[in-house]
């Protein structure tokens, strides 16, 4: 059906604006002026409204919050009033904190200076008192930030310890020729602790230590151990937590060759220095015991004679008491409960140690005393190495010794 034509309205008359009117003939109400002056026009004089957005200050403080506009209770509903809130900056905000043009603030933290030597020169054959003082400070401030700020002091103490270990190695080799001359890194223990599986969160060891063996601080051989810690210095040696095969060999030796163990643990210098047993209290010429055989796993040889309990057996008990940490609560598999050396068979550590004064490491002749302690351990260390890592011919010689004891 064709669209109807609209009648054209007279030119003089204008139709009221309606939604149905064409877009070309529609007039916008926004174009027509209302004749009223808006309140947002600037006033003609100062007497007219003075309210407006507050001036933005040029200060360097925190910028003021913008004005908030709220509708007035006006009849027309088109009036607004403005209300500024907290125009003043916070008291805590200073001009310097928010000054974009000012240069950045730099804080200089002075690094601690090296401790004075006190007139004592550093020497290769002894430790400087500053080295022990550094270890004491490290124990009191065991934190990464502290050590980082005292790195120069740590480097100086480590260098002093390296020179001491290097010169001490020559004296240990003189006492035990089986010890090779190894680099410092192979015998020294680092001060960094592995805290992944430890309840102690301190990241560093507050001591210096080194182990001397045929393979250095690592390996299956028994070693000589030197520990420097203010108030807890000591010299020791042996096998600490040997692996399964080595522990099996040690227990077999205790069962098969008890006489050799008694002879080593009752050495005059060894027993007095490491077990606290005076040589005058030991029974000289006491009967030694023989072997019971590997297959028996029984009494471990002949029964000891009466009255010998205060001699050789006392040294065995003292050695077992000093190594009871980590020992088995029950007998090891394969041995009868009545075994005479059950106290030794339960052990998992075979070590000895002697506490020394701090002054031994700072004295001019201190290394001689350390070498003397090491010298009393040579027979014990050699005995352990013959069991866990025997040299060619060691087993044959030991068998001959056992046969001689039996006679």
From TrEMBL:
It comes from the Eukaryota. Residues 53-66 have a biased composition (Basic residues). It holds the Pfam family DUF2461. Residues 1-112, 277-313, 388-407 are annotated as: Disordered. InterPro entries: CHP02453 (IPR012808). Residues 85-101, 392-407 have a biased composition (Acidic residues). Residues 9-22 have a biased composition (Low complexity). Residues 288-299 have a biased composition (Gly residues). NCBIfam families: TIGR02453 family protein. This is TIGR02453 family protein.
């Amino acid at each position: 059906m064709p669209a109807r034509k609209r009648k054209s309205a007279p030119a003089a008359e204008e139709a009221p604006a309606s939604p149905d009117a064409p877009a070309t003939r529609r007039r916008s109400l926004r174009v027509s002026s209302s004749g009223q002056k808006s309140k947002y026009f600037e006033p003609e004089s100062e007497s007219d409204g003075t309210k407006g957005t507050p001036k933005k200050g040029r200060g360097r403080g925190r910028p003021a919050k913008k004005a908030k506009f709220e509708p007035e209770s006006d009849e027309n509903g088109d009036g607004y009033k403005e209300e500024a809130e907290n125009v003043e900056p916070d008291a805590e905000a200073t001009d310097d904190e928010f000054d974009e043009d000012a240069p950045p603030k730099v804080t200089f933290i002075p690094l601690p200076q090296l401790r004075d030597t006190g007139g004592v020169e550093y020497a290769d054959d002894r430790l400087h008192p500053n080295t022990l003082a550094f270890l004491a400070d490290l124990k009191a401030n065991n934190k990464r930030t502290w050590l980082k700020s005292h790195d120069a002091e740590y480097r100086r103490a480590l260098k002093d310890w390296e020179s001491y270990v290097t010169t001490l190695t020559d004296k240990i080799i003189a006492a035990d020729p089986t010890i090779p001359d190894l680099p410092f890194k192979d015998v020294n223990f680092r001060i960094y602790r592995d805290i992944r599986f430890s309840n102690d969160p301190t990241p560093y060891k507050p001591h210096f230590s080194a182990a001397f063996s045929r393979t250095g601080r690592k390996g299956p051989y028994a070693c000589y151990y030197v520990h420097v810690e203010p108030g807890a210095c000591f010299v020791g040696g042996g096998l600490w937590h040997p692996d399964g095969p080595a522990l099996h060999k040690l227990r077999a030796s205790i069962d098969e060759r008890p006489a050799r163990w008694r002879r080593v643990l009752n050495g005059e210098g060894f027993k007095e220095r490491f077990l606290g047993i005076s040589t005058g209290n030991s029974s000289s010429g006491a009967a030694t015991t023989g072997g019971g055989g590997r297959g028996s796993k029984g009494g471990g040889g002949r029964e000891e004679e009466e009255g010998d309990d205060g001699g050789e057996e006392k040294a065995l008990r003292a050695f077992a008491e000093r190594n009871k940490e980590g020992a088995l609560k029950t007998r090891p598999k394969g041995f009868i409960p009545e075994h005479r050396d059950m106290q030794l068979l339960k052990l998992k550590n075979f070590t000895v140690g002697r506490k020394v004064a701090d002054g031994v490491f700072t004295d001019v002749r201190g290394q001689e005393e350390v070498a003397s302690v090491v010298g009393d351990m040579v027979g014990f260390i050699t005995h352990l190495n013959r069991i866990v890592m025997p040299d060619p011919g060691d087993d044959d010689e030991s068998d001959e010794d056992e046969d001689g004891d039996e006679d």
